[in-house]
Amino acid sequence: MHYLKNCFITCLLFFALLPFTYSQSVYPDPQYKFVAGPGTLQDRNFYLFTLLERLPGLPSLLAKDSSLQALRNQYKQRISHPVSNGENPAVLLFSDASIQQVSSAFTRLLQQNPAPFVRLLREMRGSGLFELHARKSDGEFLNAAWKDAADGVNYIINAYTNGTGLRYPVIDSALLYVHSPAYKAGVQHLLAQVEEKDRQDDLFFQPSLQLALGLLTLSHRDEAARYEPMSATNGDAYRQIKKTDWSKYPYPVMLILGASPVAKEVLSETGKSRCRTGAGLYQKGLAPFIIVSGGHVRPVGTPYSEAVEMKKYLVNELKIPAAAVMIDPYARHTTTNVRNAVRIAWRSGIPVNKRMLCVSDAMHLVYVTSPLFKQRCMTELGYMPAADIEQTDLYYLSFVPDLRSLQVNTFDPLDP
Hints:
Blueprint: H1 2-16, H2 40-45, H3 47-54, H4 58-64, H5 66-79, H6 96-112, H7 114-127, H8 138-162, H9 169-172, H10 181-196, H11 206-218, H12 230-233, H13 235-241, E1 254-257, H14 269-283, E2 290-293, H15 306-317, E3 325-328, H16 334-348, E4 356-359, H17 362-368, H18 371-380, E5 386-391, E6 396-401
Parallel strand pairs: 1-2, 1-4, 2-3
Antiparallel strand pairs: 4-6, 5-6
Helix pairs in contact: 6-7, 6-8, 8-11, 10-11, 14-15
């Protein structure tokens, strides 16, 4: 008995000392198959709405609910009466009261009609896109995801109708002047389209969602849909991953952080230097795969993705095999460079129970290892995508991936 008691205490101490990351969570499902919605832009930014629209039994249940139907009618009425400010896109914002109204309806429906929600919750948890809320009860989990989605719709409507609320206005703003007559006419056309699509079986969120997605297209900020599916964009590497013996390498993958051009050059000299460092480490056998990270950032409106150009440089100039290089063509910040690399590793089948290598220049890595980077991650993401950061060289460090990185960020519609 004394022996068993000691074993039990030892086990408790072992688990208590484990790093607190979500890599040990039973969710998400590495074999998860996403439900296809009406478009990639919606699926990437608002997967909850895609599930509510497409899963059997849910659309009819939501359409018949009196509380949700009243909310839907309220929004429809607002845009159909110009005299009562119906030409103002702000009428389709989700108020705090309406967000609470929907949360109460979800809580009630979950209790009264649990069957249709069983698959919804399974899909949500399996996808990983709501991983930040994964340890909450079903009701809290669903309502937290709904609030995130509602806040995301509000963010887009505010940002791309009047230019307010943007986290990074310089690189995230509409590529057209939002106060110009032409742009305002485009917004009014979007509102007219929402009104024309009025159907009795419309769901409560669809008018606002249609406006938000339309605004992203109108403002030429559709980056989130440009390279999907990533399994095809990085197809050669995905196929090579299945044949890789991971025991031969100290690290399963290397992340090379991007560096935006400041003028009209396709790839910055800093970006090239980081690629050369990473290529040297690849040739030494430190990792079998490279992830290059950087989206359409600078100059604003550039047609070039940093990651695409970095891969070209690695393959064409530095002679790294194309199948060894994957691109993250979305990230616009160091926080999301790291987050997106974790996502790619998970989705592609690269082991995430091993440390990942991260390459940059010396000054950049000083920032990554600083409290300032952690604070920024917590503020903008709500978690640290990299745990237990260790810098072992001037030009590279390693970290443990955190699967909360799979969480969709509805406050970043260009790279959710």
